[in-house]
Amino acid sequence: MSKEHHYKITIQWTGNQGTGTSGYKDYERSHSISVDNKAAIEGSSDPAFRGDKTKHNPEELFLSSLSSCHMLWYLHFCSEAGIIVTDYTDQATGIMAETATGSGHFTEATLHPRVIVTEESMVQKAKELHKKASEFCFIANSVNFPVKHIPTVEAK
Question: What superfamily does domain 58-155 belong to in CATH?
């Protein structure tokens, strides 16, 4: 039996400088992303699109969703397999191609998880579980471009 999960967020544009969208350069792209009972995230567009470089942009948040979803599934499968992970860091990268019309789309994302496990005997299985995590990641399963993985696993 399949289940549906529903999500709700609120986006509030905070970039009105007094004249609304009267001109392309007359408004800020700033906005707030909120979810009930959670800290707000201050967002903007990418600086290439007149955004505030000190705030998160949708492309970064999208890449973060891919990375964190993969990590959470990975840690779950390691826990089930008896692999003790003591540290996990991912420096994910993504490529977005802008089209001649000004629209765009992601063409790929690459996760670079660096994992530390407690024993050398866990390293090989820990590497293999990245494939399973990729197969289960809700976000990766929702995109139409490749999500690559270049994991590093070591014992300490």
Answer: K homology (KH) domain (3.30.300.20)
